[in-house]
Specification:
Elements (H helix, E strand, L loop, with lengths): L1 E6 L9 H6 L4 E8 L10 H17 L5 E4 L2 H11 L2 E7 L4 H16 L3 E5 L21 H10 L48 H12 L6 H4 L12 H5 L5 H9 L5 H22 L21 H9 L5 H13 L4 H14 L4 H11 L5 H12 L14 H8 L4 H6 L30 H13 L3
Parallel strand pairs: 1-2, 1-4, 2-3, 4-5
Helix pairs in contact: 3-4, 10-15, 12-13, 13-15, 14-15
Length: about 450
């Protein structure tokens, strides 16, 4: 029998349930569709770059048998099913609203053709619908979700073994990855070439190195942007180039301590983001806490542009934004600091910051990006309290005390004495660096006043 295997966010061959089960006793057609018809939110520019290389890596692993299509998934799948006498279609289980709606329509089409559609959870440790409170309502707070809902009930599935030899259906593959039009004509992304090796094997190697060193000091070390205690696996996880189940169980093999448990809880936060988007899909464009709907954002275009360019006059903020632009990545601690600065000090709507991250981050994840921004803004579930406003000066002094990270991305500040590095305006030394675009103390007081009206 012939099977069609759809790749979406599971761009790997190891521990890939649709591929593993779909290739058993079947001749296989692997397929990737860049759907720009049914999916409302198009990928950001940086994500498209990563996707391009991830697909190239996958296609190489599949001996150049991967089909590339762009357009309406429904019509493309229907056509291929008819043309190649497909009996079964295998794909990852959808958990985001747009994908769920799309695959409900695809299932109706396939039912009409007497073709089975088989879903496999390939992206999450726990299915969002399997975790509910005792009253059958969804959790809104992370800790009980993770400890009681997840760890207290279900073990993540153990990763599958490698596929047996895949028997590809012999057909003329006249599709090309360039048909997807993922890369811009202006090669702004060349700066990433020396920074990232985008392949499944690279993801596995990074995990191996992380588990044999940095994870041993993860709980503390992860907060310091100049240190290498973060796994940097996030873009690989985002596109499923490494199985989240494999990561969980490889970590679980280590002797449990605070570092191991903290890293696993970070994987739990990713789960929680998808959980929230599954149960509260309106979060994509609305505040989960509706009391924020009347919050008066200033949304100054000048301040927003200064933030995007890394020209706010606050070094740790500007270093983070320049890291994002130059590398397509930003350290997690710094992500929280720059996001807090935008929404609470510059009074810019979190949706604008989320959109910029979506376009610039190589690991831009639909659920994590939205949930993370709502958390910082105080508008989401288990959100940071309204009075938690990160002080960029203190954050820089505490987590980049030697200025290694700051001066890496803002080398013009190397002339400034270290005690003034995060507040260069207090130094007598003149450097080519912008003055602060706001008075931090006044912006904080203004934010607290505005938040107090809705607390």
């Amino acid at each position: 029998m012939n099977s069609l295997i759809i790749f979406k966010n599971n761009l790997r061959v190891k521990d890939n349930p649709p591929l593993f089960y779909g290739s058993k006793n079947n001749k296989v057609i692997p397929l990737f569709i860049y759907d720009n018809v049914n999916i409302k939110k198009e990928l950001g520019s940086a994500s498209k770059y990563w996707l391009y290389h991830a697909l190239n890596s996958l296609n190489e692993s599949l001996n150049s048998n991967l089909l590339f299509y762009k357009g309406d998934s429904k019509s493309i799948i229907k056509s291929l099913v008819k043309k190649h006498s497909i009996s079964s279609v295998f794909c990852e289980e959808p958990f985001l609203e747009n994908d769920i709606i799309l695959f409900e329509k695809i299932k109706k089409i396939l039912d009409g053709l007497n073709v089975s559609l088989k879903f496999y959870n390939s992206t999450l440790l726990w299915e969002p619908y399997s975790i509910l409170k005792d009253d059958e309502s969804p959790y809104r707070v992370f800790t009980p979700f993770y400890r009681k809902g997840c760890l207290g009930r279900l073990n993540p599935k153990y990763p599958l073994g490698d596929c047996e030899e895949i028997d590809f259906l012999d057909l003329s593959n006249d599709t090309k990855i360039d048909d997807l039009e993922l890369l811009d004509e202006y090669k702004w992304y060349d700066k990433f070439e020396a920074l990232w090796n985008i392949s499944e094997n690279s993801a596995l190697n990074i995990l191996h190195k992380f588990l044999h060193g940095p994870i041993s000091n993860y709980k503390i070390g992860r907060d310091f942007p100049s240190s290498n205690y973060n796994s940097r696996l996030s873009p690989f996880i985002r596109f499923g180039m490494i199985s989240i189940n494999r990561i969980w169980w490889e970590v679980d093999k280590l002797t449990a301590d605070k570092n191991i448990e903290h890293y696993k809880s970070e994987l739990g936060w990713r789960e929680f983001s998808y959980y929230l988007m599954y149960h509260f899909p309106e979060m994509e464009s609305q505040n989960l806490q509706s009391k924020f709907d009347d919050f008066e954002w200033e949304n100054s275009s000048d301040k927003f542009e200064s933030w995007k360019r890394g020209e706010t006059g606050f070094p740790i903020i500007d270093a983070g934004m320049k890291e994002l632009w130059k590398t397509g990545y930003m350290h997690n601690r710094i992500r929280m600091v720059v996001a807090s600065f935008l929404v609470k000090n510059l009074s810019v709507d979190w949706k604008l910051g989320e959109s910029w991250f979506w376009d610039c981050l190589l690991d831009a994840d639909f659920a994590s990006n939205i949930a993370g921004w709502q958390w910082v803004a105080g508008t989401g579930a288990d959100a940071a309290p309204y009075f938690r406003i990160f002080n960029p000066i203190l954050q820089g002094e505490k987590f980049d005390s030697k200025g290694i990270y700051t001066m890496k991305y803002i080398p013009e500040l190397k002339k400034i004495p270290i005690k003034f590095l995060q507040k260069p305006w207090e130094s007598d030394i003149e450097v080519d660096y912008p003055k602060p675009i706001i008075n931090y103390r006044e912006s904080r007081e203004n934010a607290l006043l505005k938040y107090s009206f809705i607390k």
